[in-house]
Amino acid sequence: MKGVPAERVYVPFDEDVPRGEVGHTVVDAGAASREKSSGPAMHDVFGPGGLLERCMIGGYEHRVAQLEMAELVHDAFTSKHHAVVEAGTGTGKTLAYLLPAICSGRRVVISTATKSLQEQLYQKDIPFLQKHFAPELKVAVMKGRSNFLCRVKAHQMADQPLLKGLEEIDAFRQIGDWAKLTETGDRAELTFLPDDSDLWTRLDARRDTCSGQKCPEFNQCFVTAMHQRAKDADLIIVNHHLFFADLALKQDDFGSILPEYSAVVFDEAHEMEDVASDYFGRQISNYRFEELARDADQTLRLLKLGSAALLRRTQRIRERGRAFFDSFPARDGRFPFSRAEREAFLEQHREAYDALATALKGLETEFAALTQKPEELTRIARRSFELRQELAFLFESNERNFVYWYERRNKGVFLAATPIDVSQILRERLFEKFDTVVLTSATLTVGGRFEYIRQRVGLDHTKESALPPEFDWAKQALLYMPRTIPDVRNPGFAPAAADEIVKLLELTQGRAFCLFTSYSQMNDLFERVRNRVSFPLLLQGTAPRSVLLERFKNTAGAVLFATSSFWQGVDVPGDQLSCVIVDRLPFAVPSDPIVAARVRALQEEGRNAFAEFQVPQAVLALKQGFGRLIRTKTDRGVLALLDSRIERMPYGKIFLESMPKYATTHELRDVRRFLEQG
């Protein structure tokens, strides 16, 4: 592709190197493409006695599925086609896609679901590959701008402190010391800084407050350095959020975040539809208006332009934003906001809506009238204009492929328009534009088939494979399904579920995740169980997710009660997690506006939305939740599903067929026996 630097192929051994020794050679990409045999065969790397085994003496075990996956991905890169690979935990899939990506000689983007997986790839897998396979390999990690320190903001805050209390003063001092030493400026290095730090939001390098090439620190900027590393890199590691933010920018001709690339690997690809939906939609919130007013205030004060008239303008945005968002019902939850509902809302609250739009327009007008127009104020005026545009779109448009909704969550009110179907967008923008896109995850098939994921993301032509498991599921995991528990819709379900949880925790001596499909169910069962067991109980919402996870790992016999965010991306190998209890089949809430709109769209096409969308979505969610338990070949544990529908209802068969071949039981005595054997 245009803009891609000269390609390089890294071959992890020379034919002249004696067997048992590791050598490196870099070959011309053109020669490699003309003579495919010049590249390494994946069997020579991943097979028995192969290079990986020789590199990792005593620490590597040949895995059939890993070799098969490497060959599938290698074929996708060399033959230039798409591939979908379901590879369970223990496969070693990161090396199985990284090495073929390196050998392809192409610039490849690796997109992960989480920043933690990004860090694992960059800090663990990449150094290993550079040491043994590709000493010249250049790799860059790219994250959103809010992850990086803005040097200008740090200097300004040091000159004119705008700090709140001793705690912020101490944190700012530590950030200042770190800023002198760090090469990346990435907040992930600041282990002392809490996830929700308000101080960091005033120091980060968000685009909203960036003056770009006009900034005096542009050449020393951490974001500039990140982009430069990416331009020079062979592999670029991003997360799904940044990837789809970039794809959405390209769609709107607003430039791009990522440099040119020719192929993509999506790890944890089951999350693609949800993340893409966020970035191809529109959203505003009360927080964005508060942040605009705060940033305008801070910028005016730092630039010594904070006249009384201008500060009144920012205060007016703050006040009118609060008045407007306070007009929404006080109940927490997500609710549809159809055209008729939006028109009725405006009829009742037209004054608040107009006042907010006028306050934004007034700020833009005041800034335009200034004789001195620093780039920082131009940026803020542009943000104000964009917010007015978003506000108008969300209330006055009625594009058919969008579902409109609002949500109140704690102190936040969010208004959004989400695409009902992103398959056509991804088909045109991703799968038809690039000749090689690889999707992989431990949870992609439903009933052994890839049809659901392919339809949801618009992938029409691909090679696909579900790899054999690396774990002995029948020996390592026991699935317990109580036979006599009431239906989940029965009032007697909650007390019966609490009884089952207490009995299971006594057998496992705590060491469990109790996973729920809603906060209300989680809180209800937590209250019913908390005084009946002696184990340390942790409850989601009482501390940041990362803190709860660390407490769980370091507290003997701990039990975590949690909802959706702990169903995936959580890794607790060993005995500390010996039981995963799921209260009910994780069907999405049917009244959720996005779910309801997608169901309605399928029904209007004459399709069975329950069978084609709701059941497959729940199957993949359950596979993710259960996947927390067995993380290594030595792990053993109990899975418990307290929802009798899996055996009573016809669709339950699809769930059972889609899961690994666990040993199963309906009796607690079998659970006891299984644990005693362990």
Can you give a write-up of this model?
It contains 27 helices and 20 strands. It has 678 residues and is an alpha/beta fold. It has a 7-stranded parallel beta sheet, with helices on both faces. Helix 22 links the parallel strand 16 and strand 17. The chain is globular, with a radius of gyration of 27 Å.
Layout of secondary structure:
Layout: E1 8-11, E2 25-28, H1 29-34, H2 42-46, H3 51-55, H4 64-79, E3 83-86, H5 93-103, E4 108-112, H6 115-132, E5 139-141, H7 151-159, H8 165-179, H9 198-201, H10 222-232, E6 235-239, H11 240-251, E7 263-267, H12 272-279, E8 282-285, H13 286-302, H14 308-325, E9 333-336, H15 339-369, H16 375-396, E10 402-409, E11 412-419, H17 423-431, E12 436-441, H18 451-457, E13 463-466, H19 473-476, E14 477-480, H20 493-508, E15 512-515, H21 519-529, E16 537-539, H22 545-554, E17 559-562, E18 579-582, H23 593-604, H24 609-626, E19 637-641, H25 645-648, H26 652-658, E20 663-665, H27 668-677
Parallel strand pairs: 3-12, 3-13, 4-6, 4-7, 5-6, 7-12, 14-19, 14-20, 15-17, 15-18, 16-17, 18-19
Antiparallel strand pairs: 1-2, 8-11, 9-10, 10-11
Helix pairs in contact: 4-5, 5-6, 11-12, 13-14, 13-16, 14-15, 15-16, 20-21, 20-27, 23-24
